[in-house]
């Protein structure tokens, strides 16, 4: 099992953000996490990626206990993510934003950093190749020298994905990647995610409100409400679960 | 001519110090009100080593810089992880502590009366060469993975960590680089004026440098350099009395903040591309 | 004799508390460290001084004038240096630069006005000391302590019990929402600056009495900052506690090691606190959400 989350709990003051949350994901899996706002979805991502330390429970990646590791160490172990509110680096252009994800692996020292050495140029070149490839995968190659702020919203989201890919993840956490996109863009995103997943063989955890994306693409879905897991199953199972319908999908037609 | 040479040498020394501050504040977003203390440490250690111990200038300079970096490491260890406001306050306290120490250690440093008798080794040529080298080093740093990670950490620390960047480490690297450059500026300063006293290295001086970076454009190395040149040379050239200089200077900066907050140069960076020279290369802006 | 030291420490600490509180007010409302606070202190103290010298008056009047001057200059400073940043979308980093520049400006003005000399306040009291049993307290220390306590108490009352105080607290908590609720945010910010400036004036007079008056007096504000850090940035109560603690510890250490090393001790105390309890005595650690 690639990713194993065991009984995670996290509270803030008196508020129990998530309680007793467990999840498994294997290579090539696309796992959806849905639930009303405030259900604790982003908190699960924050705990898994190391932004928060879990009060209880453990997280295992490829058998290794990563629960108490520092955030950047967890990334280097193989978990990368995108953010609900886009967090691109201002002051760097599109290419440089993606390079930042390569930089922790770049193999040169401060000496090369200060001077124009061959090793530095070689590594920078290697990095650029990788980043250019990832930009091409998401369709942003021609924007390489633009400022991220100047890109339309949908493209900014893709940039975040390109950046996260450059971390060479084993598990990719996508936090509402379709937020703010129109239906065509959502369709393109859906195709992109499933293509990446099958080609590169990592696991994807997906928080989404756009049910056409989540239901259409996930192998398995976890439903959260008020910090608790109220259902786990395939999209069909979840769709017809009365508790889920009541809590989240509402009285309207549950067909997506 | 003598006068202009002197103004330019002082300006060059300021520029060197400010490139250090640019790495710390402009690139990495850390505000230190104690960088001048490292200039003092560089100045005093090299001065004492040459005058009292008899070491050759170059060796004394290297030792002074190395020791400054060591002190920087000790101070930096608890400090770089702190929140932005705390960093400025802690470095402020540190700067004051160093000034107090320098005042107290009279037998070695001459105390408040200052330390004199330093031979003049800083020529105009040395100043120019040093400035050119420091600017080049900082420019390469900025274009490297280090520079990018610094800017990322400044822009969004959380996202930077999420990308695998060891933020604490990159901040320390930026801090130490800044310390080394500032200490060297101190060495040049001491061996130009031949006299130093603890009073000139206070938090006001550190603050001045931060202001110069913002005046020129916090995101632009070019801006920081030219801004420093303007703010250092102009008051000297205009031969204002010292007090009027400060007032003139403060008003200038307040005007910039009110009307062009991004600084004189904003994000603009001088590069081969912007000069229209050379083939189209992807370079960092 | 240690009681004597404690009393001296408390008196000193109470003035640091005034500095730290004035500083905290601005930190709470605009979320930055106002580095012009010290120079404002000096400027208002000088205004009070010249008033005292030209119009032969009591300490009370001098303090009142200084506080008024401090408040007004502070408001003017807010307009010139901070208004643009508050209103526009520029990064809060600029507050830092602006405040330092403003402070430099204040100090430059003072230096041009009075020159580099040291000034002494005229003697305000007949007898200079008060005796409580075997302990000798200087009258100025006593008045400093009492007025600081009074000022702080009044401030607390104001913040907790009046509608302006409530408005201050809500703007500090969430500026945008407060504005949407109909609070004139700019007015309230000006109020905060006025109060902060008035406190600076008060501290300036007392420090001037204690240490003599000179243009660089504002540098003592460093102590106020350190106190704020120890007490926890953002908490007025913490600032006071930190200031008293600093005053006491410093007086104690000075007694043993001499005043020259005071800044070294302050720095080490601050460093220790930051390592053990980064949020200070009363501050809180805000964790960032992703």
From TrEMBL, chain B:
Keywords: Cell membrane, Membrane, Transmembrane, Transmembrane helix. Pfam families: BPD_transp_2. The chain crosses the membrane at residues 6-24, 31-51, 57-74, 86-103, 123-141, 173-192, 212-234, 246-265. InterPro entries: ABC_transp_permease (IPR001851), LivM-like (IPR043428). GO terms for molecular function: branched-chain amino acid transmembrane transporter activity. It is found in: Cell membrane. It is a multi-pass membrane protein. GO terms for cellular component: plasma membrane. The keyword Transmembrane applies. Its main location: membrane. This is Branched-chain amino acid transport system permease protein.
């Amino acid at each position: 099992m690639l990713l194993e989350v065991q009984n995670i709990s996290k509270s803030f003051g008196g508020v129990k953000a998530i309680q007793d949350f467990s999840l498994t994901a294997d290579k090539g899996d696309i796992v959806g996490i849905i639930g009303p706002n405030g259900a604790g979805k982003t908190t699960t991502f924050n705990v898994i990626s190391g932004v928060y330390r879990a009060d209880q429970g453990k997280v295992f990646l490829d058998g290794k206990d990563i629960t108490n590791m520092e955030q950047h160490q967890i990334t280097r172990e193989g978990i990368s993510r995108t953010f609900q509110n886009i967090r691109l680096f201002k002051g760097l252009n599109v290419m440089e934003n993606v390079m930042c994800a390569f930089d922790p692996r770049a193999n040169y020292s401060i000496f090369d950093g200060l001077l124009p050495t061959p090793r530095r140029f070689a590594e920078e070149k290697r990095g650029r190749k990788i980043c250019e490839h990832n930009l091409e995968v998401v369709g942003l190659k021609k924007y390489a020298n633009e400022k991220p702020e100047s890109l339309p919203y949908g493209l900014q989201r893709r940039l975040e994905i390109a950046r996260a890919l450059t971390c060479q993840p084993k598990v990719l956490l996508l936090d509402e990647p379709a937020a703010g996109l129109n239906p065509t863009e959502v369709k393109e995103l859906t195709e992109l995610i499933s293509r990446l997943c099958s080609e590169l063989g990592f696991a994807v955890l997906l928080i989404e409100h756009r049910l056409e994306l989540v239901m259409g693409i996930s192998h398995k879905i976890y439903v959260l409400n008020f910090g608790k897991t109220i259902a786990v199953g395939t999209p069909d199972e979840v769709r017809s679960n009365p508790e889920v319908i009541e809590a989240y999908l509402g009285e309207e037609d549950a067909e997506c | 001519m003598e006068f202009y040479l002197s103004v330019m040498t002082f300006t060059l020394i300021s520029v060197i110090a400010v490139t250090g501050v640019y790495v710390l504040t402009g690139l990495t977003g850390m505000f230190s009100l104690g960088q001048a203390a490292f200039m003092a440490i560089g100045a005093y250690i090299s001065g004492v080593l040459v005058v009292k111990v008899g070491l050759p200038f170059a060796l004394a300079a290297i030792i002074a810089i190395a020791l400054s970096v060591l002190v920087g490491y000790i101070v930096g260890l608890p400090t770089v992880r702190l929140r932005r406001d705390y960093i400025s306050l802690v470095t402020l306290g540190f700067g004051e502590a160093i000034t107090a120490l320098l005042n107290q250690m009279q037998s070695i440093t001459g105390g408040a009366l200052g330390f004199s008798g330093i031979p003049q080794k800083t020529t105009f040529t040395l100043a120019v060469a040093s400035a050119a080298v420091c600017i080049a080093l900082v420019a390469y740093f900025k274009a490297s993975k280090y520079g990018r990670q610094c800017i990322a950490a400044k822009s969004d620390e959380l996202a930077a960590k999420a990308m695998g960047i060891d933020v604490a480490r990159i901040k320390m690297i930026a801090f130490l680089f800044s310390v080394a450059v500032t200490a060297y500026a101190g060495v040049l300063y001491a061996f130009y004026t031949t006299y130093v006293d603890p009073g000139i290295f206070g938090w006001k001086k550190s603050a001045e440098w931060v202001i110069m970076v913002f005046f020129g454009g916090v995101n632009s190395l070019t801006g920081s350099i030219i801004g420093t040149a303007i703010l250092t040379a102009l008051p000297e050239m205009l031969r204002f009395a010292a007090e009027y200089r400060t007032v003139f200077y403060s008003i200038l900066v307040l005007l910039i903040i009110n009307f062009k907050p991004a600084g004189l140069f904003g994000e603009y960076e001088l590069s081969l591309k912007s000069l229209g020279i050379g083939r189209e290369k992807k370079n960092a802006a | 004799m240690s009681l004597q030291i404690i009393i001296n420490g408390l008196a000193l600490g109470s003035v640091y508390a005034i500095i730290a509180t004035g500083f905290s007010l601005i930190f709470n409302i605009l979320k930055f460290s106002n580095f012009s606070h010290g120079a404002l202190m000096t400027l208002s103290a000088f205004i009070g001084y010249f008033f005292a010298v030209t119009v032969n008056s009591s300490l009370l009047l001098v303090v009142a004038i200084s506080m008024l001057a401090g408040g007004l200059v502070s408001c003017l400073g807010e307009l010139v240096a901070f208004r643009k940043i508050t209103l526009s979308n520029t990064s809060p980093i600029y507050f830092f630069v602006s405040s330092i520049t403003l402070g430099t400006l204040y100090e430059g003005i003072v230096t041009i006005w009075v020159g580099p000399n040291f000034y002494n306040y005229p003697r305000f009291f007949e007898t200079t000391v008060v005796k409580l049993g075997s302990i000798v307290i200087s009258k100025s220390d006593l008045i400093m302590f009492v007025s600081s306590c009074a000022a702080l108490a009044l401030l607390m009352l104001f913040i907790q019990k009046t509608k302006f105080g409530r408005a201050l607290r809500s703007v500090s908590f969430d500026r945008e929402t407060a504005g949407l609720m109909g609070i004139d945010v700019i007015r309230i910010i000006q109020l905060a600056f006025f109060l902060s400036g008035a406190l600076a004036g008060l501290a300036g007079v007392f420090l001037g009495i204690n240490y003599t008056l000179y243009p660089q007096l504002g540098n003592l504000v460093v102590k106020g900052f350190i106190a704020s850090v120890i007490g926890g940035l953002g908490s007025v109560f913490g600032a006071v506690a930190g200031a008293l603690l600093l005053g006491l510890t410093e007086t104690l250490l000075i007694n043993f090691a001499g005043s020259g090393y005071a800044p070294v001790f302050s720095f080490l105390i601050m460093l220790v606190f930051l390592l053990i309890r980064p949020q200070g005595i009363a501050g809180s650690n805000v964790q960032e959400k992703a």
